[in-house]
Amino acid sequence: MKIAIARKVPASFASALCAVPPDPPIDVTRAREQHAEYRGALESCGLDVRTIAADETTPDCCFVEDTAVVAGGVALVTRPGAVERRAETGPVAKALADHAELAHMEAPATLDGGDCMRVGTTIFVGKSLRTNEAGIARLAEVFAPRGFTIVPVALPANVLHLKCICAPLGADRITLVESAPRDTFPGVEVVRIPEAESYAANVLAIGDRVLVAQGFPRTAELLASAGYRVVTLDTGEFRKADGALTCLSVLL
Ligand code: CIR
Predict the structure, then answer these.
(1) Could you tell which of 12, 18, 66 is best to mutate to test the pocket of ligand 1, judged by most ligand atoms within 8 Å of the CB?
(2) Ligand 1: nearest atom to the Cα of 202
(3) pLDDT at 170
(4) What is the pLDDT of residues 105-133, one digit of tens each?
(5) 21-24 contacts: CB < 8 A, separation 24 or more?
(6) Where are the domains of the chain?
């Protein structure tokens, strides 16, 4: 059975990093309910969900995706771009150690897992304010010898992570917001997400099912027409902290 690593929402999530201060503020109780629904959806997709305890000193710790990149049996534990998030990696690395060979990243490299999108044997990596050249070089050093091709993708400064504009839909297909250039992803089939629903481009595909943020009907229709079984989830509290669906798990 495939494993998903998730991490509980701390009470301090109320002061998670946010590009814009949310109004109304983050409701931690509701975030915890949404997180439980998310974990339930992963289980319904047949995943064995392992949930790490929260750490009150790291308000963003539920966004585990940023702390590791897993491919080909290796987990590269990242050095997150935001200083406030650096201490999140230890417990995730511990949880991953039973399932994957661990690799690490040293200063000055920084990389957030949300900038990495694996499609077959290609890993697209966003050059963002969180992921620097040294981080991309380390990604290549770990995964290129294992048969992966690393393709850097320049991102505008207002895009937090690569997977804010696209997400994998299996081995040869992705979602991609309409405004992003198609030729950045050669040889990959694309389901275009309307600009007005750009937040919903961050889907989580598991087999023939795809988890989609609630409240984006056009995206849900497009994915259903593309042959997926769509499961919608309320991610409202995570969105306030610039998070979405892929951010909340690491899949093995
Ligand atoms: C941050 O700014 O780092 C968090 N508040 C949001 C991280 C979202 N992670 C992701 O998209 N992979």
Answers:
(1) 66
(2) 11
(3) 87
(4) 999 999 999 999 999 999 999 999 999 99
(5) 22/240, 22/241
(6) 3-251
Distance from the CA of 241 to the center of ligand 1, in angstroms?
Answer: 7
CATH code that applies to domain 3-251: 3.75.10.10
For ligand 1, whether the C-beta of 243 sits within 6 Å is: yes
CA of 145 to the centre of ligand 1 (A): 29
For 4-17, b/e burial (b = at least 16 CB within 10 A) is bbbbbbbebbbebe
DSSP state of 87: G
Q: Are 251 and 4 in contact (CB under 8 A)?
A: yes
CA of 57 to the centre of ligand 1 (A): 16
Which residue stretches of the chain have pLDDT < 70?
Answer: 1
Read off the pTM.
0.97
